[in-house]
Design a protein that fits this description.
Double-stranded beta-helix; 7-stranded mixed beta sheet; 3-stranded antiparallel beta sheet; 8 helices; binds N-oxalylglycine; binds manganese (II) ion
Length: 293
């Protein structure tokens, strides 16, 4: 069966047909998927009834895994999934939804802000592959925004202003935006800011994109309030409806996005209902600007 991709978003995002992700990828299929990512930046695979092992094997056939260690407030002893997965669920180890005021849940609410995965790591993520194992009765959509289209739509003056710009990214900044500030000293140290360039150029397509994320909380050389206001304006610009695709989840969907070219955010859902989402992540090639590891 041949792979086909049908565009489902306004300027990006494609739904892929003609592939069974449980089967080993041929090199031609892997090449078509990478090419699809270069073009669409988000790919949707429906009705893929994968085990965790099959999800992981599919991910590995596209590149190197980024492990999820120490990126949430779950202690290692509280991990529900192996570190090859980011646990994006609202569930504890016994598969029970977190209490409404559980700080692990409150930290996870940061995913409702527009972001790019692992922009708080010096080598940030390439692709993320999120699979729906169980979904709530309502809400819980995921939205994606095309940062290439957002860059293209900037006026020339702003393009010149962002060229060469370097930002500080940290989960401390994104959580501060939603009033979550009760970090321990250990967490503050673990979440200390890293540097990222603002404008990225895609290695295959050559398209420029805005590397924005709610984790960005400072601009090198700028006074803080001016930087924060500027970053807010850019995110507002970049997430206008014409650049956004909303994914309505079905169980057994797998959605893959390129964190170098898009932002995404979760939408709210009833706090007492399980939402079991599991994510594998492909590591990026390296830092976007020179800095200590
Ligand atoms: C993620 C993420 C959004 C969602 O998996 O990185 O931000 O809707 N998920 O769960
Ligand atoms: Mn995310």
């Amino acid at each position: 069966m041949a792979i086909t991709i049908r565009q489902v978003g306004p300027c990006f995002a494609g739904e892929v047909d003609g592939i069974d992700l449980r089967k080993p990828l041929t090199s031609s299929e892997a090449a078509q998927i990478h090419a699809g990512m270069d073009t669409y930046a988000v790919l949707v695979f429906r009705d893929q009834k994968l085990s965790d092992e099959e999800h992981l094997a599919f991910t590995r056939s596209l590149g190197d895994i980024e492990h999820a260690i120490g990126t949430s407030l779950r202690a290692a002893s509280e991990y529900r999934l192996p570190t090859t997965f980011a646990d994006v669920s609202n569930l504890d180890k016994s598969e029970t939804p977190f209490a409404r005021d559980d700080r692990r849940r409150l930290f996870g609410i940061g995913n409702r802000l527009w972001h790019s995965d692992s922009s708080f790591k010096s080598t940030p993520a390439k692709y993320s592959l999120l699979r729906a194992v169980s979904i709530p009765s309502k809400g819980g959509n995921t939205q994606f925004a095309d940062m290439r289209a957002a860059y293209d739509a900037l006026d020339d003056e702003t393009k010149a202003e962002v060229e060469g710009m370097v930002c500080e990214h940290s989960q401390l900044y994104s959580r501060q935006l939603i009033g979550f500030t009760d970090f321990t000293d250990e967490e503050r140290e673990r979440f200390r800011p890293v540097l990222q360039c603002m404008v990225r150029t895609h290695p295959a397509s050559g398209r420029k994109s805005l590397y924005l994320s709610s984790h960005a909380g400072g601009i090198v050389g700028w006074p803080m309030p001016e930087a924060r206001a500027f970053l807010r304006d850019l995110i507002e610009h970049a997430t206008q409806r014409e650049f956004v695709y909303t994914h309505k989840w079905r169980v057994n969907d797998l959605v893959m996005w390129d964190n170098r070219q898009t932002m995404h955010r979760a939408r709210p859902f009833p706090a007492n209902e399980p939402r079991d989402m599991r994510r594998t992540t492909l590591a990026g090639d390296g830092p976007t600007v020179a800095q200590a590891a």
